[in-house]
Amino acid sequence: QAALCMRICSAPLRMHAAIVRCDWSVEVWDWDAQRCGTTVRLEVARASQKPMAVVAFSMDASLLVACEEWERYAKVWSIETGRCLRSLASHVLPITSIVFSNDATLVASSSED
User: Cβ(68)–Cβ(52) under 8 Å?
Assistant: First the structure.
């Protein structure tokens, strides 16, 4: 069951990848070292712990944006602290994809609305 709700994304500038698990823990993998460098637990309210549907790293691997399954909003987290930095709401239907701009100042998302 854990493999079904795991999501993976990568950060091209840092050669890192993130594995986001059902319990909202994030393993940040360093491709050069070929090991898990950091594990961070994202601060999520227990009542809303649904599996993540979409996730994306910022180019420098310092931020993660994610959306829970069937949700219309996304949240941006600090990889260093696990804290939610902001919540972004803009869709009528669930978000299907999400990405940071190259400088991480913007987030683009899409849905079927």
Answer: yes
